[in-house]
Amino acid sequence: MRPPLRDQRRIEADRFGRAAEWWCVWHLRLRGYRIVARRYRTPMGEIDIVARRFGTLAFIEVKARASRRGALGALTEYQLRRIARAAEAFVARNPALADHAMRFDAMLVSPLGWPSHLRDVWRPD
Fold first, then answer.
1. DSSP 3-state assignment of 21?
2. How far, CA to CA in Å, does 114 sit from each of 24, 58, 68, 76?
3. Residues 6 or more apart from 99 whose CB is under 8 A from it?
4. Which residues contact 121 (CB under 8 A, 6 or more apart)?
5. Dist. CA 125–CA 42, nearest whole Å
6. Contact partners, residue 57, CB within 8 Å, separation at least 6
7. Closest Cα partner for 103 from 90, 121, 91?
8. pTM (2 d.p.)
9. Which residue stretches of 31-76 are H helix?
10. pLDDT tens digits for 77-114?
């Protein structure tokens, strides 16, 4: 028996999101980033990817949508604040990384093409 259509769409969206994160991880690795954490969860929020390169710690939000414009539009102010709080918790639990410069990035994924890596997309207040 198949799940209801709404649940099926949610399952497909989750699969697309996980595949997009995997694709972004490999894109970053090919560009010299070391992946420190994936899907880091805290009560304050979740960080899709934490990556390190040349003394910079990048907290990366992955957005996968049918178009890159739709992916960019999916980044909300509320969500960005939650990621910033989760980043604070991550650094508190990983004091060896506290001396790194911190940056908040986004990676946009659509079904066709390479992920777009937008560096330093926002700064927490």
1. helix
2. 9, 19, 11, 23
3. none
4. 75, 104, 105, 106
5. 20
6. 36, 50, 51, 91, 97, 100, 101, 102, 103
7. 121
8. 0.85
9. 68-73
10. 888 888 889 999 999 999 999 899 999 999 998 887 78
CA 26/CA 59 separation, integer angstroms: 16
Instruction: Say if residue 15's pLDDT is above 80.
Output: yes
Taking a C-beta distance cutoff of 8 angstroms, is the pair 2, 11 a contact? Answer: no
- The ranges assigned to domains in the chain are 5-122
CA distances in angstroms from 65 to 22, 40, 73, listed in the order given: 15, 21, 10
> Considering only CA atoms, which of 108, 104, 63 is closest in space to residue 83?
104
* Range list of β-strands (E), 8-55: 34-42, 45-53
Distance separating alpha carbons of residues 5 and 11, to the nearest angstrom: 10
Is the domain covering 5-122 a CATH 3.60.21.10 domain? no
Q: Which range has the worst mean pLDDT, 2-16, 30-44, 81-95?
A: 2-16
